[in-house]
Amino acid sequence: MDCTKHRKLLSAYVDGECSQFESAAVEAHLKKCAPCRNELSEFYTLGSMITESFTVTEEVDFTSSIMASVMSDSGEAVVPIAKGRKKVIGFSSVAVALLAGLMAFAVMNPLEAETVASGNEKLERYVFEHVASTYDGSNEEFGVVNFGQ
Amino acid sequence: MGDALVVEKVIGGDAASYELLIRKYQSKLFSTVLHMVKNRELAEDIVQESFLRAFRKLDTLNNRSQFYPWIKRIALNMALNHFEKEKRVLDVESDDDESSFFENISSGESPEELTLKEEMKRYVRMFVDSLPDRLRVVIILREVEDMSYEEIAEMLNIPLGTVRSRLFNARNIIKERLIKQGLADGLYKTS
Ligand SMILES: [Zn+2]
Question: Which of B27, B122, B169, B187 to mutate to test the interface with A (most CBs of A within 10 A)?
Answer without folding.
Answer: B187
